[in-house]
Design goal:
410 residues, 4 domains, 4-stranded antiparallel sheet
Length: 410
């Protein structure tokens, strides 16, 4: 699939097309900041189009909307006497227009200037409602027509409010809005992206529901649209956590939490000691049960400290938990192509070693050669490649079991 790159100036007017480049790399992300970078020959008409405050819209052949739009954030002139000779080459790139959400903070009181925020409540600003509405409303207060005049983004069009998505309740106080929106959106009902339109000279907010394309878009060896895949299972590094509170010797309260399932499965026992003498708890000298460290400890403090013990043990076990992960490397085929047939936010299916895994496409990395043709398209599906403990353990474990049964029959 071929690509074309249209260039905009700081006023969001289309000023030309880059139809010749050395390389281009894109990362398109679901409800996050994607990135893009291009390398062109310096001193060419293509390089002359680039300017501070300008940006690009990157299109795929046969697809109406651009797959990514964004502002130019960096230039780098590159020259060597072996390569990139003559006038050299120019790297330029930036983040996609979703970065607008990361450029703004959620003020405690968006109706007042920054210097008057001292008048806002110390507890932050409480918000509640459907996720789609909260996304739209917060962006409107921070950069849309509902924002203070000096915070509004020129050329930004947010469109109508929506009421879709799960119900969310939160408290805002100087949070980065883009990061906060990541916690509000979900993979079933609510997504957003900012997209530049050269026709209207505006950057438009699109609020959408992810599409379930799990039956139409499938990746597997048998379908011929997988170049490579790898999966891994890793044993836990911690299976037993001991949390020690205040006191010494007999007076020190000790709590232990054990991951019995992992110990049984992997046949290992690995202990870890956590020194939490900051928690105001000691051991009853006759029973060993937790009691207040002294008379100054209130009931609320005691309850909070007991919960902190449980949380510390659970966190340590999760950090050292058994891990399952896989990496998938599809290829575009005439039957299934990124951009044309699926996009970030869509739900797709992967079949590996007889196990089907269905989840959302969270990001896609694309490399384009000098001829404008795709070299690689690498989607990240669900928690694929994230490295988070337990993220895909059951799925990858099932892959291993299916493979063992296949090996036994051969």
């Amino acid at each position: 699939m071929g690509y074309r790159v249209e260039v905009r100036d700081a006023a969001l007017s289309r000023i030309g097309i880059i139809d010749s480049w050395i390389s281009m790399d894109l990362v398109v992300r679901y409800c996050q900041q994607g990135t893009w970078q291009m390398l062109v020959a310096a001193g060419t008409p293509q390089a002359d189009l680039l300017q501070k405050g300008g940006g690009v819209a990157i299109y795929q052949d046969g697809v109406q909307l651009p797959i990514l739009t964004g502002q130019i954030e960096s230039f780098q002139h590159y020259w060597t006497n072996a390569q990139h000779t003559s006038l050299g080459s120019l790297y330029f790139g930036g983040k996609c227009d979703n970065k607008l959400a990361y450029n703004r903070l959620a003020w405690p009181d968006p109706t007042k200037p920054a210097t008057q925020q001292w008048q806002a409540t110390d507890d932050g600003r409480a918000v509640s409602g459907p996720a789609g509405h909260l996304v739209w409303n917060e962006l409107d207060k921070a950069m849309g027509t509902g924002a203070l005049p000096n915070r509004r983004v020129a050329g930004l069009v947010l469109g109508p409010d929506v009421t879709s998505g799960k119900t969310v309740s939160d408290v805002l106080q100087w949070d980065v809005i883009g990061t906060k929106l990541e916690s509000w959106i979900d993979t079933a009902t609510t997504g957003y992206r900012f997209l530049y339109s050269p026709d209207t000279k505006s950057i438009n907010l699109e609020l959408f529901e992810p599409r379930d394309k799990s039956k139409e878009v499938r990746f597997s060896k048998d379908l011929g649209n997988l170049r490579e895949f790898t999966w891994s299972l890793t044993a836990p590094t911690v299976t037993r956590v001991i949390v020690a509170c205040q006191g010494t010797g007999k007076n020190r309260y000790l709590y232990q939490q054990i991951d019995e399932d992992s110990e049984s499965e992997w046949g290992i026992q690995i202990e870890q000691f956590l020194d939490r003498r900051d928690l105001p708890i000691k051991a009853d000298p006759t029973t060993g049960e937790p009691i207040k460290a002294d008379l100054s400890v209130t009931d609320d403090q005691f309850a909070t400290a007991k919960q902190a013990i449980l949380d510390a043990a659970t966190e340590a076990l999760n950090t050292g938990a058994k891990n399952g992960n896989f990496q998938l490397y599809p290829v575009d085929t005439n039957q299934i192509k990124f951009g044309r047939d699926y996009f970030v936010g869509d739900v797709v299916t992967v079949s590996i070693d007889g196990v089907e895994y269905t989840d959302i496409v969270r990001e896609v990395a694309i490399t384009v050669d000098s001829g404008g043709d795709t070299e690689t398209v690498t989607p990240s599906i669900g928690e694929q490649g994230s490295g988070n403990p337990l993220n895909l353990y059951k799925t990858v474990f099932d892959m291993r079991e299916k493979l063992r049964k296949l090996e036994a029959r051969m």
